[in-house]
Amino acid sequence: MNRREAVSRVALLLGTTVIGAEFFLSGCKASDDKIATTLDFKPSDIAYLDEIAETIIPTTDSPGAKAAGVGTFMTVMVKDCYDEKNQKIFLEGMSKLDEASRKTHDKSFTSATPEQRKALLITLDNEQKEYNKNKKKEDPPHYFALMKQLTLLGYFTSEIGATKALRYEAIPGRYDGCLPYKKGDKAWAT
Q: In the chain, which residue ranges form alpha helices assigned H by DSSP?
């Protein structure tokens, strides 16, 4: 399978196109080296992104996004695969999300309760869906769409996501295109 097919399949999983896919397809190297070297995430940024990701995909009967290291994954993808415009949107979005939490709950996102975090992210998700309905081709992506897509991509391509949340068979046997499906079965990772 080539990268283009892999991105297409991930896009189907996410239900949308992957923002920055052209960089992903070209090997995740920004064309301007100074972009990648000037962008630096602190450990507190990674912890903050882990909390956002954990709110999107919480720990249930399988480990959540924080256990999969999605915060670190997001920083690598933003630094190595996004162009300068999308990097700026993502970084500003981190601040906007925290400001929205302070405005709504009078506390930072990381200080908010899990219920408050979830309510805020549902509001932001509805906001980005509405934005995308009216978005023109030349309009930039919504920052929460970037965060949500990276969370899903990072989680379901991690070992934890593939083996604990999805059904994973390291060495698949024969191809069987007509397997019976029982309601509640996990999707296949392979």
A: 3-14, 21-25, 33-38, 43-56, 70-81, 84-105, 114-134, 143-156, 159-160
Q: Taking the mean position of all CA atoms in its chain, how far away is CA 52?
A: 10
| C-alpha span between 100 and 123 (Å, rounded) | 10
The phi, psi pair for 167, rounded to 5°, reads -85, 130
Dmax over CA atoms of the chain, in Å, equals: 56
Q: Distance between CA 9 and CA 189 in Å, rounded?
A: 11
Q: 83 and 23 in contact (C-beta within 8 Å)?
A: yes
pLDDT tens for 136-187 read 999 999 999 999 999 999 999 999 998 888 887 776 666 667 777 788 888 7
Kindly state the helix (H) or strand (E) to which residue 173 belongs, with its residue range.
none
- pTM of this prediction? 0.74
- Taking the alpha carbons at both ends of the chain, their separation in whole angstroms is 12
Residue pointed to by tokens 């999983």? 13
Helix 43-56 with 143-156: angle, nearest 10 deg: 80
Report the amino acid identity of residue 153.
Answer: L
